[in-house]
Design goal:
By secondary structure, the chain is α/β, with parallel strands linked by helices. It has helices at about 5-25, 45-60, 65-70, 100-105, 125-140, 150-155, 190-210, 215-230, 235-245, 250-260; strands at about 25-30, 40-45, 75-85, 85-90, 90-95, 110-115. It has 10 helices and 6 strands. Strand 3 (about 75-85) and strand 4 form a beta hairpin.
Length: about 260
Amino acid sequence: MRAASKADVIKKHFSLLCELRKKYRIEVVTDEALSDPVISYKISDVYGSTRYLEFLSNELAIYPISIFTRLQLDRIVLCSDLQKHDKPVSGCASMSLFPDNLALRMFFWKNTVYLDIKYDGTIDGLVTIHHELFHAIESHDDSWPKYVDVDWNKLNPAKFQYRSEMLASDCSPSLDFEGFLTDYSMQSVREDKAELFSHMIVNLPRLETLAKKDQILAHKILRLKKILAKFSPDFDEQFWTTRQEGAVKGSLKAEYEDLLLPRLR
């Protein structure tokens, strides 16, 4: 089979861009450098971004369209060498201070998710897409103060502290605490929730197996389902029943296990 010509790739590229924009009402940016005070990146090449567009399309298709209507995500930026605060990241979300107000978003800052195309086809890439989508979901919470969830903290072991709560920056929580999936989930409440959500989307059967032996994790899953159902009624039991069929298989299974804390593997 002949290799696709650049013209064929460009045609497919723009077809995918148009399809995503029409279906989700989201602008997907692949060839423009946007200004952000803490985020930097390079423009991705058309071959890499086209492959990632297919990858992204498959993951967005997991969700009902109505969730994106509620989400009001303005842009997804596909790029290379993505950095936040000068540190390499696979993705990040930059949400407006007014996430539900279109006029103010257009004037101040749009709801934007950045994704590094290097992670195309990987477990890291899968988890990143859904992790950043959760940050976008959480920005629409009408509670005040925003992003503060004292009830979530109450689910954790009594002596546990997130890194963001520790006075000494070089301190790290013990990896033996129950209720956590990855090292990054111990960073803050927001990252704990985003990590849990992404793993629920990517590999819910594995999480349910872990939750049978980890009551804190089980309670967090229930709590997150309630938060999501409040955001959109389409995060219902039928949605999660469908995700039970989405276990990671084949060559990506070992890659997935590598993401988990050592005590969970």
